[in-house]
Amino acid sequence: MMNHIDCEIIQDLLPSYIDGLTCEKTNAVIEEHLAGCEKCRKVLATMKGASTEIPEISHEEKREIDFLKKNKKRNRRILMGSVLGALLFVFIMIAVRTFIVGAESSHEWAAMNLTVTNNVLNFTAEPTGSSNAVAALTYTEENGIVRISARTVMVSPLHRGSLEGNFTASEPIKEVRIGGRIIWANGATVTPLASDLYNTRHSYIGDMPVNTRTANALNMSTYLGPYTNELYTASEPYGWKIILSEEIPDNIRLQKINDMEAFGYIFIGLIENLDHVTFEFQSGGVEESFTVDAESASEFLGQDIKNCSTNIRTLDELISKTGLSLDA
Description:
Layout: H1 7-18, H2 24-36, H3 38-52, H4 59-101, E1 103-105, E2 109-117, E3 120-127, E4 132-142, E5 145-154, E6 163-168, E7 175-178, E8 181-185, E9 188-189, H5 192-198, H6 208-217, H7 220-224, E10 227-232, E11 238-244, H8 253-270, E12 274-283, E13 286-293, H9 294-301, H10 312-322
Parallel strand pairs: 5-7, 11-12
Antiparallel strand pairs: 1-5, 2-3, 3-6, 4-5, 7-8, 8-9, 10-11, 12-13
């Protein structure tokens, strides 16, 4: 009934017919034609054979495929080896830095048995923490000041903890420093708090940011709470008023006044032109003020309070007399 359709049209439809892309009506037409056309049946058989037949690979092609497979495996091994080698290198570098080279440390470790005799220094470095060890000590000197630096590492069979060292200077030793801290001066060791405070000494009370450095070294806001400032620099004697923002409970009022006295003495000792410090505060709902001046500070210390800004041992003596035991 549909055999009058041209073979070329049928053959054009055969690829879609094989792939199942033709509709039922078209399929019926193609199949009716194929039933009566041997030529188109042969074309269909050829097309079906071509769609399922796997072409034979030549010997040369097989060798090339085998080579590519082997090369791919070799490249994969090289890549894995490179990655593992890089990781091993990084691990070794970390281990060398952690256990052998170490990092320079300043005052995060304690000095034990520091002795100075004229120009000879003997020193034992004891790190903080049981997992740290001192790997090496380095000394430099200038104008009687000896600076010690240390490299600390993790404890290992190579470095087990403390390290002893000695140094002979070219002239009598006046100071010994670790990093920015003075640890020995004028024949005696110096506390960390005295060293930190000594580094904040300055000449002019009118420089509030520098005043704040001294207050921060004393950690004053922790002990007295937040505060505001008023400076009196229009004429001498120059003063500093510290106004506490929070009321002081009655049961700790005397303790806080003792802290104010200590802080005031230290401020006057470290700020060259400062004469008096006043604290204003509330306690029990009553406004109060407490003032210290250079005269009372010198009387308390037993010498000129201004010596604190030129002699760190004097400052350390003042701190000891006030009874301050702040963490530096």
